[in-house]
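Need tokens for this chain, all 270 residues.
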Amino acid sequence: MNQLQKAARVAVARCMSVKSGETVLVITDQPRRKIGYALWEEAKRSGAEAILTEIIPRKIHSEEPPRPVAELMKNADVVLAPTTKSLTHTDARREACSQGTRIATLPGITEEIMTRTLDADYQKIAARSRKIALMLTKAHQVRLTTPGGTDIAMSVEGRKGYADTGLYHQKGDFGNLPAGEAFLAPIEGSSQGTIWVDGAIADLGVLKEGIRLVVKDGFVTEILGRTEAEKLKTLLSPLGKLAYNIAELGIGTNDKAIVTGNVLEDEKAD
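Here are the structure tokens for all 270 residues:
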């Protein structure tokens, strides 16, 4: 068994807990075809009624899949979606989950990421994620500091922490693969301080210089740095004020994940 097959087996058997006789739909596109086929092979091997469908790559994240595919999603027990653009925040995914479909999206996943991060102990990741999520739920205030210069505080009073466990065994369960994160939304307008970003940013990749973000009343008010800071300004400026909102606090819990510039993996790195 090669490493990709091994990772696909973890996804199908451990993460999705696919049972013989269940219907499993794998949605992929041409750049992710090899991964989609590996998942389909494992679903078939598990005794499931395995269906593989390839769609044209979506132009942007959250663009709806074709209507016939959306209908298939609602009628499947399990959906695995290794696609170039994310199907996470689509009506098709939401409607399928409301019908009881268990879904894992794998947006932008590569063979390297899959073989590294799926070869993990998801029971331990789940326990770690739930522990931190409970801490966040019980907290009133969070303050983050780093040697690089991050010092930001935010109110989380009354907000529930969520655990992205990677174990999607119950009807309607949904999440990413790879998984491993505890997260919540802080109180709007409460975040104050400075964030020093020296890892990676979506659409910019791994940073070489670092960016300093000044946060006041829940919004980034200054983006300080050199070339990378200017690129971030260019990305955000057409999007309006809400693009500068501090919308989520996430803590990675997957010990196999590393910072690569791919947000699917980056946000899971512990």
